[in-house]
């Protein structure tokens, strides 16, 4: 990076910083005096003052006047009006509450200050910030790349389809929302006054206009900077849209316009799409997608299904297209450097946002986070610390990948580690430790050992011997671990959790130990109860039948028992049990799934005891079973298996791939957009032999 | 206006004849027991309670509302603002960026 470019970036960052102070500070400040409490006893007066004077004060004014002991957190309120943007919406006060299962343990009292944000202004401000960030990427050396002009209009139509399909979600933000271009008056005349929609479409059109120019001049360098997706999540504060999902869809549409897409993939996907459409029960629902906002459907309508199916397809071909056009510009050293910078910044800004609430709010806005960063430097109940990321598990996986990639980059591309790289590796290790993702740490350790053996032991016999010794150690360890548990307990762990999570209406007679048949795991009895009283999902019904009456071969554990036993050791019995208690597909849904990013039907279709909140399957494989069904998943396994066989000589590429394939079993990371892009780019880097010693 | 009336007063199958009400010097709105009374206010802060759909529709037509942000159409303002800025940018970009 030359000096001129650095100065340019500095000025642009300064502009963003000043704009934020102006938007959330100067322009939002009130003409009235902020409440000045003289003592800490004036809390209720302080609270009433700001509750009464809604849409009046900026977050800086309110936080400055806050001198009380209760913990204060700042959240955005997406249903704010334009004139209230950046001002106080409401203040919640939550008293200390008894912690579940705690005798004398109370959660601290909290004050939640809700700051108004607005769909249109978020669309304008946040896309402006991310377009400026995009412009930091160096320009292409050649000017060959052109975006077809129809791409903008087709992308615009796609985003109109989004609001049409998810109108229930947008109606919760404003009663003015309507997807209609005009209204009819009582005398049947037409009135073109839906400025809500016009402003939305115009803002997007302008965003595409600038995006087109930026992409045309920088497309070849984008892949080198993709790691920053983990820092700049790009989710709009008020919309169920992600800026970078839009960018990749935009590129996907361009690919369709300028060249032919993969025929087999397209036909296959179209076949699945037709089945999803036929199988959908059209309901105008609004499902709270919480931390996966921006990359998940909130509704269960035909148009929302069309939108998300198209987006998934376009993101897939857009990613492929991006790698394809930039093969000559891809620089492994630069990617490694950017991965390390991203992971270090994530931890640095994560710590800052846990120390200061104003920074926490602003980081949510600037980075486009799916969920506000953590409020404290300590983890959840002293456990995992996710920092700015929506999931500790997903980000732990990323940190581990950064370390593995750095080591492999050192081997493959002779990446030159300097002092600052060692510091960044150290910071990343700290992040990995705090994310507390044991699976990522263990898989990283094993793959690093295999990599070191592969690189340093050239003698084949010696290498085989070392592997055999390691496998023997692992088997002995597994045996001694398994010896402490009964097989009966382990083999039924998932079934037990699943039955406990089911919403059973039947009134059981309790035995002498006050245990019901469900708690005793008497599945033969449960299977004989009327179905409407057990409320078992179709998947649980099938698995209980198979577990209780299925064919058993002496001394050989069934697949179900083996998975159940394994789930216990990776801490997934409960989560997968909950998944089974909820997963209630019919035959077509089981075979072909509900469609990409479709959770509403799974969550709203069958009740278990967990009625509130987003409880994810905690396995990318199970998430993809929901999306694409058994056939889709089977095809995916075959394609990945074939891919590994074809690229088996690319040892280091396969090691990186294996890291994800192992972790996907127990983590949901594939439903997060940056993680999906990471694995897609990795596949393409291996495919084009860009991660190879040769 | 129909949309605004439906948002505030709810939908109704009857078509209101506002001109007839305007032209009548002593029109009296009949309270509808099936209608949930609605509280509306105007820009000066005056408050009225309305007891029938047609009465509510008539007041909404006259600029009364139940939501303070209805007095200012922010989306309309923003639409013309960004459209103006975008056109201005395209008109002057060559002159500004060529320097």
The stretches of 5 or more residues of chain B where confidence is low (pLDDT under 50) are: none
Shape of chain A: globular
Count the helices of chain B. How many? Answer: 4
- The oligomeric state is heterodimer
Summarize the structure in short.
The complex is a heterodimer of chains A (694) and B (99). Chain A has helices at residues 3-24, 43-52, 59-64, 119-134, 150-165, 167-171, 195-218, 243-258, 263-279, 302-325, 332-355, 357-367, 392-412, 419-435, 438-456, 460-482, 487-491, 493-501, 523-528, 531-534, 538-549, 559-569, 573-582, 587-592, 600-605, 620-646, 651-664, 673-687, and strands spanning 71-77, 88-94, 97-98, 106-107, 110-116, 183-184, 190-191.
Keywords:
heterodimer, A: 694 residues, mainly alpha, 4 domains, three-stranded mixed beta sheet, two-stranded antiparallel sheet, 28 helices, 7 strands, 57% helix, 4% strand, B: 99 residues, 4 helices
Molecular structure report:
The complex is a heterodimer of chains A (694) and B (99). With 694 residues, chain A is mainly α. Chain A folds into four domains: 3-117, no CATH class; 129-329, no CATH class; 332-484 and 617-687, no CATH class; 487-605, no CATH class. Chain A is built from 28 helices and seven strands. Chain A has helices spanning 3-24, 43-52, 59-64, 119-134, 150-165, 167-171, 195-218, 243-258, 263-279, 302-325, 332-355, 357-367, 392-412, 419-435, 438-456, 460-482, 487-491, 493-501, 523-528, 531-534, 538-549, 559-569, 573-582, 587-592, 600-605, 620-646, 651-664, 673-687, and strands spanning 71-77, 88-94, 97-98, 106-107, 110-116, 183-184, 190-191. In chain A, the strands form three sheets. A three-stranded mixed sheet of chain A has the order 1-5-2. In chain A, strand 6 (183-184) and strand 7 form a beta hairpin. In chain A, helix 5 runs antiparallel to helix 10. Chain A is globular and about 80 Å long. In chain B, a hairpin with a 5-residue loop joins strand 1 (38-41) and strand 2 (47-50). Chain B has a two-stranded antiparallel sheet. In chain B, helix 1 packs across helix 3 (53-61). The longest helix of chain B has 24 residues, at 74-97. In chain B, 21% of the residues are buried. Chain B is built from four helices and two strands; from the N terminus they run H-H-E-E-H-H. Chain B has two domains: 2-66, no CATH class; 73-99. Chain B is mainly alpha-helical and 99 residues long. The chains are: A mainly alpha (694), B mainly alpha (99).
